[in-house]
Amino acid sequence: MAISVEDSVDVLSGVGPKRLQALQDLGIFTIYDLLSYYPFRYDDMGERLPSQTMDGEKVTFKGVISTPPVVRRFGKRSQTVIGLLVDRENVRVTFFNQPWIAKNLEVGQEVAVYGTYNAARAAMTAIKLVPASIDGLSPIYPVSKAIKAKTVAELVEQAWGQVRGQMDNLVPKHLREKYRLLDKNEQVEYSHFPNDKIEAKAGRRSAAFEEFFLFQMRLQLIKQADQRFLGEALNYDRKAVSDFIKALPFELTNAQNRVVDEILADQASPQHMNRLLQGDVGSGKTVVAAIAMFASVTAGNQAAIMAPTEILAQQHAKGLAKLFDAAGIDLRVELLTSGLKAAQRRQILEDLENGDIDVVVGTHALVQEGVHFHHLGVAVIDEQHRFGVKQRAKLREGGVNPDILAMTATPIPRTLAITAYGEMEVSVIDELPAGRKKIITKQLPNRQYDQALAMLKEELAKGAQAYIVTPLIEESESLDVQNVTAVYQDLQDELQEYTVGLLHGRLPKEDKDALMAGFSDNQVQVLVSTTVIEVGVDVPNASIMLILDADRFGLAQLHQLRGRVGRGDRQSYTILLADPKTEYGKERLQALVDTTDGFELAQKDLELRGSGDILGTKQAGVPEFQVGDPVKDLTMLTIAQEEALNLVREDGWDREEDNQALVEHLSKTMASFRHFD
Ligand code: ADP
Ligand code: MG
């Protein structure tokens, strides 16, 4: 029976329920998906003669079929045997468990077979038929434990044998012509079965463009839909908002003023806000969020802010309450985290739903079942790179579609921002509050720990507070705890005049809260901690940080950690203790010594790492592409974005004959996988 590209992959022989599951886990549901599952590299399977081949070697023989295929079945298993005349030698070739292959094999036909050679018996155990080619390349597919690359290759081959020529072009013709891209069927053929490297490269180029283009089409369509979606025009109390700004304990920086204007304009417009606020650590994003939330509340709405850690949520709840209090504003701010007692939680949920709470601060607990708002006007997502796309999307499902303000310090270079945030408007705070002194960063070898400690004591003597960050131990969190505890005990001896606190993720919630409160109020002067303080923590009187074994941390993480100091008027210091073993390790630390600018560091990180998971792009929410590389193929990505934008702006593009396959594909994939919020 003829199969079509829309059929489920289990129409292929060899795909039972188990394999089907394994394929689906890789995102392969249909024949189309399978053929769009491209190899990540190719093994060279250059052809050779039996006389040149050693026993047990994997090799490709090219020859003429000399005896017709004989299929023997043993239950589910089978053997298909042919004779292959290679040069002048007859090789007995056996295909295991591929009975269907017999119908592709005829006497007199020229074929190439890749397999393992058994010299003594002049036999080959075939791995696959290679489309007759001289310098054959064998595709290698990215797979899971549940399925072998070889299996995928076989299935691709089987499928392609049946639907060759049936693939519709998704990239419009004018673009294929403009950028010399392959026809879809050639693209598939060249990608899976290249005869040489040139074909493989051409296939990849077209496949990468298609991937980027489809991605950008989705983003642009989401953006368009978002803009059409009428959010609510927020009719906030301008006077109250400007009074609040005047009552702040400091003047906003120019950059803060600018982004506040951008955000308020978004909120006031009938369009729905979907804005990313980027600003380096310490640039003062929280107060901007407070203004946006307050504006929403003045119009009778509720506001929510979601933080990635309890410590940070706690800090925000206190900090916001303090800001509103100081301005004489009477608001109800509540904290909703998973650490709450059942009764408390119930009460808060009730009050949220009936509208008694104006501002709610929470962790991911905010997006759990049972959280309903009376009328959520704006949702702020702090340190948004720490949240999964799902959690972000969920916040938007809270009944009405609230305005979204996502905040991040992760300095994603603009170029990468295209992929991560293509659907969002971006505001940037590119200025630190006045009076900040540049953090001085030093790198010392581990043996100079005493010297680092002496600097720390000097600062403590001046009334400052300090952080000591202990290294990550990759194997387990409990080892991290042991490690931080050992450092803590040691420092208690060393710093007897001061109160030293110990903070790690496994402490009970009450202890964490008490400790952070103590550190905020300067009851505790020295905080020995794991990386739980990495994001957001704001104690301006803390002005020195010691990071032990600093080479164990990534550059982006070190930058975040360092951002905990330099938040007040004091000259601040970060001391990196490390004996980096690699060149990369050395350069990374040097980069931190050289600059405090997050964007510069991100760029440096990019250079040092090349590409791949830069800046922890996984963390940053940059989607992963299967074929294209958003760093190496950046130009292509940018072009794909421009062209997608041009296309969706064209009236009636989706009714044009030539674009029907594209429209159909998009509507299918956008309904089934909602990758983007
Ligand atoms: P981040 O952008 O890293 O989240 P925060 O919002 O925590 O930064 O702000 C860092 C510190 O700077 C806080 O103590 C905050 O009160 C203070 N701050 C924010 N804006 C200003 C400003 N315009 N002038 C002085 N201090 C400010
Ligand atoms: Mg912050």
From TrEMBL:
Keyword Iron: no
Domain (Helicase ATP-binding): residue spans on this chain: 266-429
Reaction(s) catalysed by this chain's protein: Couples ATP hydrolysis with the unwinding of duplex DNA by translocating in the 3'-5' direction; ATP + H2O = ADP + phosphate + H(+)
Enzyme Commission number(s) of this protein: 5.6.2.4
Keyword Zinc included in the entry's annotation: no
SUPFAM superfamilies, alphabetized: Nucleic acid-binding proteins, P-loop containing nucleoside triphosphate hydrolases
Cross-referenced PROSITE patterns: HELICASE_ATP_BIND_1 (PS51192), HELICASE_CTER (PS51194)
Keywords: ATP-binding, DNA damage, DNA recombination, DNA repair, DNA-binding, Helicase, Hydrolase, Isomerase, Nucleotide-binding
Any Pfam family hit: Helicase_C
Domain Helicase C-terminal per the UniProt entry, residue ranges: 448-607
Family: Belongs to the helicase family. RecG subfamily.
Name the record gives this protein: ATP-dependent DNA helicase RecG
Native organism taxonomy: Bacteria, Bacillati, Bacillota, Bacilli, Lactobacillales
